[in-house]
Amino acid sequence: MTDIKTKVQGLDPNVKARDLQHMASDTANIYEALAIIAKRSKQLAVDIKQELHQKLEEFAVSSETIEEISENKEQIEISKFYERLPNPVLIAIDEYMGGDVYHRYNDKKKRF
Known about the structure:
- By secondary structure, this protein is mainly alpha-helical.
- Helix content is 52%, strand content 0%.
- The protein is built from five helices and no strands.
- α3 runs antiparallel to α4 and α3 (30-57) crosses α5 (88-97).
- It is elongated.
């Protein structure tokens, strides 16, 4: 798992228009390109979630009462960082358009 901080550095978190013909140039089908992007974004979402939970587990304190809530500034900063990250779909689109996503077909059938 690569560090998400370096992966999204300089990536615009806002949605913008994309050239669909350029996006479909690798697969010759926009729906296949979108399916590839969707699968990659699901992978990224799982990776981000696991990374966040790993970092927050360091601060986990087992207490028997619910009323005892302690605020930790480091924990708050980590949570704010992950809230500010671009959507995993935007990261996946950027990776796909940059040629960083590898895809192949599992079966040997011809695709129409």
